[in-house]
Amino acid sequence: MVSLMSRGFSEPQENAMTPTDLPAACGDAPEGSPAAILDTEEGLDRVMGNRALYARMLRRFRAEYEGFSAALGVVLGAGETERAKRQAHTLKGAAGMIGACRVHQQAGALEDAIGGVAGAGLWQPELAKLDRELGLALRALDGALGDKSGPGAIG
Length: 155
Description:
Hpt domain-containing protein, phosphoprotein, Sig_transdc_His_kin_Hpt_dom, protein kinase activity, two-component regulatory system
């Protein structure tokens, strides 16, 4: 059998960061700071500084996740927990990619709450928290995309 090493691949590092891990800046950003809501520096790092690509990602996130919380509430209210978990997981990944740290964290908490549903309504507080964080992130996106001169300007 040919080993991974002889084919030019290395063994995975035990502590290697995976794409779904939170960047350190998310946890380090002071509560209420713009970077705690939308860390544009982290988002740009994820796309190797390609501002045009990052701006497209922000616009797409903005378009796709406006009204997300209400739509997810309908899905959960209908008892479609697997679908809701997938949607929360997708939001978690998208938020992580653009640097929306708190949305990433809260979408993960909601995903966990949906998975642990033992009775009706256990996901509702987590969805309310997600709705708040997502609203803040969407407003931050508007600022990042609309202000062409500020330090967080992207668009």
